[in-house]
Amino acid sequence: MASAPTLGGGPQKKHKVTIVGSGNWGSTIAKILAENTRANADLFEEEVQMWVFEEEVSIPKDSKYYDEAAGDKPQKLTEVINKHHENVKYLPGIALPSNIVANPDIRDAVKGSTILIFNLPHQFIGNVCKQINGHILPYARGISCIKGVNVTDDGVSLFSEWIGDGLGIYCGALSGANLAREIAAEKWSETTIAYDPPAMDYSRAPTPRTGSPNPTTGEIPEIQHTDARGRASKTKLTAVPSDYPPLDQDCFRTLFHRPYFHVQLVSDVAGVSLSGALKNVVALAAGFVDGRGWGDNAKAAIMRIGLMEMVKFGKEFFGETVQTATFTESSAGVADLITSCSGGRNFRCAKISVEKGISVQEVEKQELNGQKIQGTTTAEEVNSFLKARGLESEYPLFTAVNDILHGKRQVDEIPNLMSDS
Ligand SMILES: NC(=O)C1=CN([C@@H]2O[C@H](COP(=O)(O)OP(=O)(O)OC[C@H]3O[C@@H](n4cnc5c(N)ncnc54)[C@H](O)[C@@H]3O)[C@@H](O)[C@H]2O)C=CC1
Ligand SMILES: O=C(CO)COP(=O)(O)O
After folding, report:
1. Is 24 in the pocket of ligand 1 (CB under 6 A)?
2. Could you tell me which of 264, 238, 388, 255 has the C-alpha nearest to residue 336?
3. Looking at ligand 1, which atom is closest to the CA of residue 280?
4. pLDDT digits (tens, 9 = 90+) for 86-125
5. Are strands 100-103 and 44-51 parallel, antiparallel or unpaired?
6. How would residue 211 be classed by pLDDT, with cut points 50, 70 and 90?
7. Which of 91, 338, 340, 373 for mutating ligand 2's site (highest number of atoms within 8 Å of CB)?
8. From CA 25, how far away is CA 31, in angstroms rounded?
9. Strand, helix or coil at 191?
10. Can you tell me the distance from the alpha carbon of 148 to that of 123, in angstroms, rounded to the nearest whole number?
11. Which of 15, 24, 66, 372 is buried most deeply by CB count within 10 Å?
12. ipTM higher than 0.95?
C-alpha cells in the first residue's frame, strides 16, 4: 500500500480511485480524476483504475491507430485504451492521461480502492454491484454519476442509496449540466456533488440527518434511507481508518474540481439524483416538439412544465429529504434541464425520431454507436410507478412522453395534454 509521511511522522495512506464504467461520461470523468490524482499526490494514488465492459473494436485503415500487423482483426477495447490512451469507441479524439488503467476485470479493478465512482448506464448497475459485493474495502466510499432511478414493484429508490445499501458503504451523487463531449474538450462547466456521510468522515459539523459518533462509546451511527413507500433501510458503516486523509466533501471536491469543471457541493443527495434522472424524460419531450419544428417557445414550455413535475415528484415521494432549491438553483437541476433540452442525446434522438418517423430506440441504435440514452427506460419506470398508484394524470408530461414512446399518443397531442399544467 502506498504511503506518504504526515506531520506526525506516521504513515499516511493514500486513496486509491476506481471508476466503474467507461462510456462517454465514464471516460470523461476518468480523465478528470486522473488529472487530479496526479496533481494531488499527497491524497491520492496516481493510478486510476477504469473498469471497462470488454468488447472488441475494429480500427479503420484511415485511423492513426491502424496496425498493419493486426489488420482488420478486432482488438480488445481495454488493450486499445491502454496502448493509445484513448477510448476510441466511446470518447474518440480525446487524449486520456496515461495514469488511467483500463481493466476488464471488475473485481480486480475495485480491489483495494477507497473511492469508487459509479458511472455507467443505469440498466447495468445491478449486475455490476452483484459482482463486486464482498470484494470491496468495507470502508470504501462511493459517488454515483448515474442519471436514472431504480424502480421496482416496491417503489422508486435512488442509485446512490441503492448502491450504498447493497454494498454497505456510503455513496453520494454527482450530477450537473454536463454534456460529456464538451467537458472532455475542457470547455468550462459546473457540476453538483451531493455528499453527506455521517460525521465520522467529516471535518465539518454533522447535519441532523447523518448525526455524529456517540461521544462516549464512539459508536458510528447508521445511515437511514427511506424509499418511496416510506420503508426505511439502514446501512451500518465502517469508519475510514484514520491513517487515510479524511474522505469528506473537501476530498471529493479536490478529486473532481478542474479549472474547466467547477464543483458545487450540497448535501441533498436525493434532489441531485432525482434531477439527473427525471430531466432525461423532459429532454425527450423537448426533442419531440423540436422535431415537429415548433420552435423555442414550445421547448421552453416543455422545460417549465417538466421542471414543475420534477419538483412535484421529488416532494411527493421523497418528502423533506429533497430541497426545491436543488431543482431550481443547482447545476444538477435547472441547468442540466436546459443543456439536456438543447443538445443532449435524449433530446437529439427524440428530435430525429420525429423527423424521420422512426422510434427513438431505432435512432439510438443508428446514431449513437453503442452509447445508451437513459430517458426511454426512465420514462417507462416512472410511468409504471405512477400508474400503480393511479397518479398518471397528475404528471401529464411524464405520462405523455411514455405514451408517445409506446405509440399510444402522438406528438401533436402534447399541447392539449398539457392544457392544465
Ligand atoms: N454522456 C453524457 O454526456 C453524460 C452521461 N451521463 C450519465 O452517465 C451514465 C453513463 O453514461 P455514459 O458514460 O454516457 O455511457 P455511454 O452511453 O456512452 O456508453 C454505454 C456504456 O455501457 C457499457 N455497456 C454496454 N453493455 C454493458 C453491459 N451489459 N454491462 C455493463 N456495461 C455495459 C459500454 O461499455 C459503455 O461503456 C448514464 O447514467 C448517463 O445518463 C451523465 C452526464 C453526461
Ligand atoms: O446528462 C447529460 C448532460 O448533463 C447528458 O444527457 P444525454 O444522456 O441526453 O446526452
Report:
1. yes
2. 264
3. 41
4. 999 999 999 999 999 999 999 999 999 999 999 999 999 9
5. parallel
6. very low
7. 340
8. 10
9. strand
10. 9
11. 24
12. yes
Q: Which atom of ligand 2 is nearest to the CA of 147?
A: 1
- SS3 state at 218: coil
Decide: residue 280, CB within 10 A, 0-12 exposed, 13-18 middle, 19+ buried.
buried
- Give the atom of ligand 2 at the shortest distance from the alpha carbon of 178: 4
Q: Summarize the confidence of residues 12-36 as an average pLDDT.
A: 97
d(CA 401, CA 409): 9
Query: Residue 203: pLDDT above 70?
Result: no
3 - beta bridge partners?
Answer: 13
Which ligand is closest in space to the CA of residue 149?
Answer: 1
Any idea which fold 14-267 has?
A: Rossmann fold (3.40.50)
Sign of CA dihedral 146, 19, 191, 287: negative
Q: What is the pLDDT of residue 393?
A: 97
Query: Which residue type is seen at 211?
Result: G
Q: Which of the following CATH numbers is that of domain 271-417: 1.10.1040.10, 3.20.20.70, 3.40.30.10, 3.40.190.10? A: 1.10.1040.10
Q: What is the pLDDT of residue 234?
A: 66
Report which protein residue has its CA nearest ligand 1's atom 36.
Answer: 23
**Burial code of 254-277, b = ≥16 C-beta within 10 A, e = fewer?**
bbbbbeebebbbbbbbbbbbbbbb
Domain ranges of the chain: 14-267, 271-417
Catalytic residues: 279
Task: Report the alpha-carbon distance of residue 18 to residue 158 in Å, rounded.
Answer: 21
